[in-house]
Amino acid sequence: MAVADIATRVRAGDSTAVAVVEEYLAKIRSTDGDVHAFNLVTADVALAQASAVDDAVASGHDPGPLAGVPIALKDNMCTEGIDTTCSSKILEGWKPPYNGTVVDRLRDAGAILVGKTNLDEFAMGSSTENSAFGPTKNPHDLGRVPGGSSGGSAASVAAGMAALSFGSDTGGSIRQPAALCGVVGVKPTYGAVSRYGLIAFASSLDQIGPFATTVEDAALALEVIAGHDPLDSTSIPSPAPALLPELDKGVDGLRIGVISELANAADPDVAERMTAALGALEAAGAKIVEVSVPAVVYGLTAYYLIAPAEASSNLARFDGVRYGLRVDGADVQEMMIRTRTAGFGDEVKARIMLGTFALSAGYYDAFYGKAQRLRTMVRRDFDAVYQNVDALISPTSPSIAFEFGDKSDPLAMYKCDVCTIPSNLGGDPAMSVPFGTGDHSMPVGVQVLAPPNGEQMMFRVAAAVERAAP
Questions:
Q1: What is the CATH number of the domain that holds 42?
Q2: Would you call 149 a catalytic residue per the annotation?
Q3: Options 88, 127, 149, 235, the catalytic residue
Q4: Per annotation, catalytic residue among 173, 194, 394, 432
Q5: 74, 89, 137, 407: the active-site residue
Q6: Strands across the sheet with 112-117, in order?
Q7: 260-319: pLDDT as tens digits
Q8: Number of domains making up the chain
């Protein structure tokens, strides 16, 4: 059932939030033993929140646009009194003393939290194989990955265990798993959604966004969580745009660009779906033009210097002193070394070391400084292209979901994000929309990109892609 339909029925008293939540909790009990989308199922919290929504309806109050809608949150968003681990041993059992802004906005809109979802540790990965608590599996094929790092959030919606879920996107961590699991995933403009209460990986790249089964559900979810937040210094000081009115406008007369550098990066089965999507948009009245964004070929290189450098700084706070895991040692230095050795996984350690090296004396200008200049080139190239087109199209992931262990080589894993990273470097909005299946009947996603604060145009095009999807 569509998110808006759930909320409408609950608000009208035609169904109860408790009944809706019990149905989803039953689905989690029957399904998550195989999928492992959740690190924590918050059944008691969910039923208490649902009861409060029903009480509000009974007393004549409107609980909000997501009344009774069961949601799941990536386990790197702070939830007051509820475990928040980032799928890392170093934070196992930590209960934040406050909610993130997105968590409060969802609660105020009547949404019901059914659990915290699994991720690659500290959001560092593209397969959810790097979780300290075990991998999440793709609901379409349990032998394949769901993508990452927000694999648990994508899988929870794909398997029908949550009506909506929310993840964070640093280099594609919402869009890539959305494509591999066959759901809609949205990375908003940087600053459009508050990062307050999101445990940082790379602060200049991270952004929270929704997963949903339809473009309409994703639009409703983004309308709820977006908008200025004074608690986040990078928050855009303007209200959230109205997205739902854009969905039926169609693409007749729009100019939509195909990024040649990214289209050529896809496997044949994914490229075939892309071609079909472009044909459908053209049949709907859009003019399709091939464009070049030359700097995107350097996106992967720039990202894997900038993101680890910021992670090196952000993760320095996990020292065994203030919160989380603490392993005793003979002195403070030994205690910190033992704590981080025991608490961080191999991928996190590797990225911290890479980032520390890139920021070190004698290497800063050669590596980090040069990467930031490449980032500026990406921004300028996108700005130039958007002078001539309304939106852009590319594959979301260059391949379908791969089998566990297939990307054991780090570089092969990093290349999974080649199509998604450029939008994070530029701060632009982008989203993945399911468009049929590729090899092994696995989902394929088409990525829709738009200029900064161009969510309305992005959703307009995405809705047209969805309407044409097989």
A1: 3.90.1300.10
A2: yes
A3: 149
A4: 173
A5: 74
A6: 38-41, 112-117, 70-74, 164-168, 208-212, 184-187, 430-437, 443-449, 391-395, 255-259, 287-291
A7: 999 989 999 999 999 999 999 999 999 999 999 999 999 999 999 999 999 999 999 999
A8: 1
